[in-house]
Amino acid sequence: MNSTFIGYVLFAIAAYVLLIVGVQSETVDALQKGYVPDSLIHYVHIPGIVFVFLGVSSSMLISYNFRELFGLSRPIFCVHKNKINFSLYLDAIKDIAQYSNTHDIESLEDYANQIKYPFLRDGVLMLVNGYKKEEIKEILDSRIDNEAQRESTDVNIFEPLLATHPGTACSALRLD
Predict the structure, then answer these.
(1) DSSP state of 92
(2) Residue 128 vs residues 7, 21, 102, 123, 136: alpha-carbon distances, Å
(3) pLDDT at res. 135
(4) What is the number of other CB atoms lying within 10 angstroms of the CB of residue 10?
């Protein structure tokens, strides 16, 4: 199913909630009393919250396809999960160098398969398989460029938000 169609359906539901349910004070009062604590009743308007949530969701579905939207989850979660500790990479490189000085090239392949960093592991395996230095550099540079392009595409979905809200925490996402 097309994401644009789903976006229009969500927008219609949001408009229905705001226009039909939201204007009937008895319905809103019942919703407010059932779901909102008394101390917050003057600050929370449930039909308005539903309209904002569905409106934003529908506008994103209208503007972008599913692949682009679900691709957003990866960089958002990776920002907090994958903090790079360069000292661990350097230790791994040092261990590889020490191992390669004391063992033959065949056993280096087995050792390389145990490396937990995929980028580093692939580089060592290319060395073991006889790739030339220039080929390895070109392949790994290409992987870095492709990953940067994917992440840039994901972040650019937030570009309209950055344009309308400069100076917010979201402006840190800009890749200028």
Answers:
(1) H
(2) 50, 67, 15, 9, 11
(3) 93
(4) 20
